[in-house]
Design the sequence.
């Protein structure tokens, strides 16, 4: 149930193309490759392409789940609202809280490389100075905080520039890599098979890291209240965005396997794209890919800020968190209190990161912890979609497969990866992931006891929701037939 604390977000700001750009930027192709390729290689070796492929299949099931849920409940809180109205409000709150924690941790995991990359453009030796990188990264973070505060229109204009240049550089390097003659390792189709994984636990570990690659496309759902025709647009943009980044991820991961030795990959760490660029185009290539990664990092900081602040806005509006978080700025139509709160928390974490030491260790633990939280809230959303559409799953084969089997398999895969990978993670990663999730129990119980209407939800059911949305008061049977055509779009 949605309550109102005052003025809402500005509707109809973003169009279809804008939303697709946000979906691609949210997954941050260049940043994900730079920050995670060495981590993925360390976990699964040459099976990186397979991990990305086998995670993409269930991930598409989650994308379908989001698309279908977004058709019947347009809400800036996305999974926070959907899971709460289908499974249980406690699970819904923890789903939203998992996104808040993962996004807040990412503020540091994303800003540190942005700072290091900026320094490397001037002096490569400065890039390893973690306190200085944290300070420069904090500067980028504050800049994006101001852009997000300025509203969705300003945000998408900044994304068009940053993501446009990033994708141009990445596609150019993919084409050049195809023509490159020097190979460290011969291409092998077995990289797409299951033979390189170290048992189920190794596969789960790779899947969790791969989930981090794709994470961020769901920003389209958090922007749904600000999007034109969002019941269709948010889901379509997410599908297109995941398809685009999947092709980019696979192409670059194969290129890394072919062109770089294992020693180069491991020693490069988060600088792996710069090393690859130097291999492909000595002297210039490394710098260009550093620019692409820097733009991607800054762009995904922006989309992540949108996700966490819109989620907190929905929580404040529903009074499951302090109601001030649901306050919208009278001029910019943005949740300025939520933005300020996230900014303050992130700056405190920058200070902790600056004192923590190794940037590589920080990134590795952060990626694993974020992957754990992603698997949790994506898995719950997949189940929520099946429950919401349960009365329609047997109306057609397509509804059964696209609306039931695929989202449910996606959810099962995510939750299996969550459980199976726990034994493979470092203590720090488990503390960040599980500890951050459990911390949400405190505000959940406090605001449940205060009687928030969120904990007495109107159940989300696709047949009723579509019947209510049908114009001119058409009957439920008519709405049911209409939903078959609507749901088969995804």
Sequence:
């Amino acid at each position: 149930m949605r309550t109102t604390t005052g003025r809402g977000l500005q509707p109809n700001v973003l169009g279809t193309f804008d939303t697709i750009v946000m979906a691609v930027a949210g997954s941050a192709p260049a940043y994900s490759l730079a920050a995670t390729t060495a981590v993925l290689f360390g976990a699964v070796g040459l099976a990186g392409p397979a991990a990305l492929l086998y995670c993409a299949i269930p991930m598409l099931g989650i994308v379908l789940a989001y698309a279908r849920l977004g058709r019947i409940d347009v809400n800036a809180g996305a999974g926070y609202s959907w899971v709460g109205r289908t499974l249980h409000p406690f699970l819904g709150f923890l789903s939203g809280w998992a996104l808040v924690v993962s996004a807040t941790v990412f503020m540091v995991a994303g800003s540190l490389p942005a700072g290091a990359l900026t320094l490397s453009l001037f002096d490569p030796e400065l890039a390893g100075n973690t306190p200085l990188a944290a300070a420069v990264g904090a500067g980028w973070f504050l800049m994006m905080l101001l852009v997000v505060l300025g509203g969705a229109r300003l945000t998408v204009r900044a994304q068009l520039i940053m993501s446009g240049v990033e994708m141009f550089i990445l596609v150019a390097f993919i084409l050049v890599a195809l023509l490159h003659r020097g190979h460290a390792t011969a291409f092998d189709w077995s990289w797409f098979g299951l033979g390189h994984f170290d048992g189920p636990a190794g596969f789960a570990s790779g899947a969790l890291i791969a989930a981090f690659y794709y994470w961020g496309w769901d920003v389209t759902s958090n922007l749904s209240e600000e999007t034109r025709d969002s019941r269709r647009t948010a889901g379509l943009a997410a599908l297109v965005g995941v398809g685009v980044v999947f092709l980019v991820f696979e192409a670059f991961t194969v290129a890394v396997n072919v062109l770089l030795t294992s020693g180069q990959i491991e020693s490069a760490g988060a600088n792996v794209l710069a090393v690859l660029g130097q291999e492909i185009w000595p002297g210039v290539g490394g710098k260009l890919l550093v620019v692409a990664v820097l733009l991607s990092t800054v762009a995904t900081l922006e989309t992540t800020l949108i996700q966490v602040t819109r989620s907190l806005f929905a929580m404040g509006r529903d009074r499951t968190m302090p109601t001030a978080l649901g306050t919208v700025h009278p001029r910019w139509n943005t949740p300025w209190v939520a933005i300020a709160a996230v900014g303050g928390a992130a700056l405190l974490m920058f200070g902790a990161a600056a004192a923590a030491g190794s940037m590589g260790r920080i990134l590795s633990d952060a990626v694993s912890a974020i992957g754990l939280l992603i698997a949790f809230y994506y898995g719950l959303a997949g189940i929520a979609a099946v429950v919401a559409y349960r009365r329609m799953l047997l109306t057609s084969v397509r509804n059964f497969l696209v609306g039931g089997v695929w989202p449910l398999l996606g959810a099962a895969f995510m939750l299996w990866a969550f459980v199976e990978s726990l034994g493979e993670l470092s203590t720090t990663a488990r503390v960040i992931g599980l500890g951050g999730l459990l911390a949400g129990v405190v505000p959940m119980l406090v605001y449940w006891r205060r009687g928030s209407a969120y904990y007495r939800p109107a159940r989300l059911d696709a047949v009723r929701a579509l019947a209510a949305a049908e114009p001119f008061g058409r009957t439920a049977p008519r709405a049911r037939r209409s939903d078959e055509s609507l749901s088969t779009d995804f």
